[in-house]
């Protein structure tokens, strides 16, 4: 399991930059290890749905506090995971793709590192167990993998990238899960997730285009497609869950129109998106 150290929070926990400057390298390393261990414990506790340590309910940041973190950051929050490293996981050379890559090649050689691989497998596994249609199961399997390329507006980017190759209901589910996830629907079993209080701020209000999209989709005859993607979206990553691609191989075979030239080389309007994931180190 990997996790990120929030540098500012770490320095603040030691009493600020001046206090850190007074520590020996050894003392700093010890403090960092201690901080990392506690952080891991907190993350596991959070993943298990417990309150923050000390029995206090978790205190979520405000949207303004989250915005303040932008200044001085090394990358924008919406950048694709394939294009940015962390202190614990620097960028490394990628395995080359085969000449005519398939969807499965992208899963194995790119999404596994940077495309929310475990998360989408867990979501699709849950969708299969709860008896969803194949279009919804497939939507769950694909719903977040475009985050390897770009995270901002990932519903729209993801749907566009898959649209030429998947059933219409599947790309519809991928596109609109992004807007629906901010709106609870108790009748269908969807609660607003704590992860969003943490990620967007406790007082976050979706932007007008998201609100408008929600209102439009709420009345759409296919509302249930993206709604079921959100219902099966699992917000607590379970490091112990055993999930594999095996149950989905047939669904991909039945519903994905694999281009014979390989993804990225079929001259489709979205081929460049696949190539950008295949070759993220091309400088221009
Ligand atoms: Fe998503
Ligand atoms: Fe998701």
User: What's the end-to-end separation, in Å?
Assistant: 33 Å
Q: What's the CATH class label of the domain at 103-278?
A: Mainly Alpha
Got a strand count? 0
Largest sheet: none
How many helical elements? 14
The amount of helix comes to 40-55%
CATH topology of the domain at 103-278: Hypothetical protein af1432
The class by helix and strand makeup works out as mainly alpha
CATH architecture of the domain at 103-278: Orthogonal Bundle
Following the backbone from N to C, one meets helices and strands in this order, namely HHHHHHHHHHHHHH
Parts with pLDDT < 50 across at least 5 consecutive residues:
1-5, 36-42, 44-53
Determine the mean pLDDT. 85
Q: Please tell me what the overall shape is.
A: globular
Hetero groups in this structure are: fe (ii) ion
Description:
The chain has 284 residues and is mainly α. It has a domain at 103-278: Hypothetical protein af1432. Helices cover 49% and strands 0% of the residues. Helix 7 (134-142) crosses helix 9 (168-180), helix 8 (154-162) packs antiparallel against helix 9 (168-180) and helix 9 (168-180) crosses helix 12 (224-231).
